[in-house]
Amino acid sequence: MKFPKRYVIVLLTFICTNVCYIERVGFSIAYTVAADAIGVNQANKGMILSMFYYGYVLSQIPGGWAAQRIGGRRVLLLSFILWSLICGLIPIDPNRITILVLSRLFVGVAQGFIFPAIHTVLAQWVPPQERSRSVSLTTSGMYLGAACGMLFFPSLVKNMGPQSVFFVEAVLGVVWSVIWLKFSSDPPRIDLPKVSIPKVASRDTIKAQAGGVVAPRTVKIPWQRIIFSLPVWAIVVNNFTFHYALYVLMNWLPTYFELGLGLSLQDMGSSKMLPYFNMFIFSNIGGVVADHLITRRILSVTKTRKLLNTIGNACWNCWCWPHWEYSGGSKGFLQGSNKLGNLENSLLCSSIPLYF
């Protein structure tokens, strides 16, 4: 039985997001250790950690445009090579602020091209009835990558120093780039010129190879309708609130463990990766549930998306607010989990609902 090409593409994009988030978590761990060693204050630390996201937001729309123009496959390859080279060449020295600011800015720009390119690739390769679980699997790579980074990098930093994290990240980026170059391909198109076989046979062959999906022709983007569309803004707000929580967690969790709870990352074992591992598991569950509801026509696509997002946000609020009130605000909330001996349970419960 031949393994469908679209499955290869989905698997490679899953590994892609995995490596990207290994890099992001790895930097926050390595830089936090290096910065704390020389007494960098929290404000300056926050500035360096945030520079990635300034670059990241700048390249989102250009990333989508580039993926449509030259192909998502090429954009992914070029962006991976760029950020991998930066990680491999730039020293992680908290005293060299300008170099760190510029390097994180450019890594953010490079990685900002990745997700628009991934969505372009998946839209071209994956049929609608498989799209929810394919996208869920791909994006769950982010959380598995973050979990792996939290599990392995603290020991690596302790034994080999913060710079070793950059070396590992650069190697992973280069290895993925080589694998992507070898095993990925552009999607077949039905509008290729001068086809030497009959039209009907060509279309059937191409659709079979692409899993029933053919790449759409480029159309004019209705920017005005997009900008003034309420559903679009609902999606924007949803993504903003979700990723704000995710990136605060990702950047400041090492500092919180060290300073808020007085716990060493090396001594915490597997509990420090619980939030991200739960995200990985329940993101895929959400994708399977969504595809089931849609393909069985139990709910429409719109109602399915609304339902799962509402469940996730409602569960998160129901868990978070009582803990906040009980512990007397942010300081008590952070310390209460540790004092009650429920750190693992808190991390487990708080991370499950967010990722539907």
TrEMBL record:
InterPro entries: MFS (IPR011701), MFS_dom (IPR020846), MFS_Na/Anion_cotransporter (IPR050382), MFS_trans_sf (IPR036259). GO terms for cellular component: membrane. The chain crosses the membrane at residues 51-68, 75-92, 98-122, 134-153, 165-183, 226-253, 273-294. It is found in: Membrane. Residues 9-356 form the Major facilitator superfamily (MFS) profile domain. Its main location: membrane. Pfam families: MFS_1. Keywords: Membrane, Transmembrane, Transmembrane helix. It is a multi-pass membrane protein. Belongs to the major facilitator superfamily. Sodium/anion cotransporter (TC 2.A.1.14) family. Probable anion transporter. This is Major facilitator superfamily (MFS) profile domain-containing protein.
